[in-house]
Amino acid sequence: MHFDVILRHGELIDGTGAPRFSADVGVSGERIAAIGDLSGATATHEIDVAGHIVAPGFIDSHTHDDAFVLTDPGVEPKICQGVTTVVAGNCGISLAPLRAEREVPQPLDLLGAWQAFRFPSFAEYLAALDATPAAVNTVALVGHSTLRVRHMSDLQREANAHEIAAMAVDVREAMSAGAFGVSSGTFYPPAAAATQQELIDVCAPLRETGGVFATHLRDETAEIMASLEEAFAIGRALDVRVVLSHHKVAGKENHGRSVQTLARIDAQRTLQPLCLDCHPYPATSTMLRADRIRQSSHVMLAWSKPHPELAGRDFHELLPRFGGSIEAAIEALRPAGAIYFVMDERDVERIFQNEMTMVGSDGLPNDTRPHPRLWGTFPRVLGEFSRTRGLFPLEAAVRKMTGLTAEQFGIEARGHLKVGHYADLVVFDPARVIDRATFAQPTLRPEGIEHVFVNGQAVLSHAKPTGNRPGRALRRQQAGAASASAPATPPNASSNTSSNATPNATEHA
């Protein structure tokens, strides 16, 4: 039997959380064609991966890569970490549907310059990804804040019935085009005036189409419990899964409250489908905001459009330039973004240990001095959180970045090592894998990620990008629709399959 690629002598972690096992992996075309003893088979390309882990390609559950996959289709910060699929359109911010004719309000500009907002429909955005493929696959959410900017001239008020109806039409069209759900970000100014009922009414098409409701909570500080209840209520009203984005408890006075939030989340998920994502750092990054500055022990300026030379500087050291006033500094520096040391390390660890926590980098690729999570998230979970701190076994770490994410978002035929699934694969050295990016040097590449395949093609070989761009715009199938991405009879399928293989990822989120 002949394959296009055989990965020989690896230790396989299949994305289910099951113990690792020894096997070869055979790839034919874009699919995993065999798992088992392939000593009698040949391949066009054979790679000896003895001493290494072979895992499903990592799925970054929380990104703002909507424009990045178009402007920098090599997507090196992601493939160097083993990421093969990114979930874009988070926090209420999506590139489509919006055709901008002027500067967009923050935080939409975290995705890039206003000229990037050039897609009046979600279908046109996905078509652009088809026409200019990236090195990774893209799962796209439609952002509620983007819809508000598209349909409302005054963002400081509740939407009226006409505006809500127009936004709901966009949601239906986006879901029909292949969006995986809707995201919200009532924490941010464009959507802060939106009520719970507005979100329910705008997202009403999800009752028929399915999908997820991913939310940056209205408040992650003192009012976090009320914000959780709002998210739960919206999910119940829509009968869809709720994704709690970058779950955290922010502000020094709230450190330790993850015990309370996680207990509430665990209790509620016995009643409705819930999951959460997190990144492995005690600092976050977003637009420059006075409330976040006051809640943080340290603030670093990530970028400033009028003052790019100040990127990387300590915000408080800059205050004397602006009369010591936080508000005056923000006014002079904006549009701008910052990195906020606002969380407690033990809260981050505790959240990561929850069985429903997925790995999401939340990186901002356009920042002049980005948060190191952009380049380091996944190797840090593997090397620091699993190997060094022992927070969870490597099998659990891999599940958090593969199978769990595929199942929660409804990403079919990915996230598991299984015959017939797409050959999104990562090979890494479990003894050596680690992040190298720091807050001082945030773009250093990680170590220990050796090979990455997307849809059967190598995008990283011996830790170096190949230049291949086999990624796709993934499209979620609606309830009752035949799945275009469901695996057909796999080519050159072998009977040497492992009993550790998993069922297909569920179609519905």
Automatic annotation (TrEMBL):
GO MF annotations in UniProt: hydrolase activity, acting on carbon-nitrogen (but not peptide) bonds, in linear amides
Low complexity: compositionally biased ranges: 481-509
Domain Amidohydrolase: 46-210, 358-459
Taxonomy, superkingdom: Bacteria
Region ranges (Disordered): 461-509
Database matches in InterPro entries: Amidohydro_3, D-aminoacylase_insert_dom_sf, Metal-dep_hydrolase_composite, Metal_Hydrolase, Metallo-dep_Hydrolases_sf
UniProt protein name: D-aminoacylase
